[in-house]
Write a structure and sequence with these properties.
There is one protein chain. By secondary structure, the protein is mainly alpha-helical. It has helices at residues 12-21, 27-39, 51-58. The chain is built from 3 helices and no strands. 49% of the residues lie in helices and 0% in strands. It has one domain (12-58).
Length: 63
């Protein structure tokens, strides 16, 4: 039997939000790819053009 380390699975939206928190991306730079994901039938908790509003409403970046 082989041992493998535990892996944490993160969904796309969580990874994008992490990158914004770390200063690697900005909300505007993530909005367009989020809209592209929605156009491809990817399910996200907001509608086209709604990423920034969703972040604000959900307090995603509140400290």
């Amino acid at each position: 039997m082989c041992w493998t380390p535990a892996r944490t699975v993160r969904r796309t939206l969580g990874l994008l939000c992490d990158a914004i928190r770390e200063g690697l991306l900005t909300v505007p730079s993530v909005s367009a790819p989020a809209d592209d994901l929605l156009a491809s039938q990817y399910r996200l908790p907001f509608k086209h053009g709604g990423f920034a509003e969703w972040c604000e409403r959900e307090g995603v970046f509140a400290h």
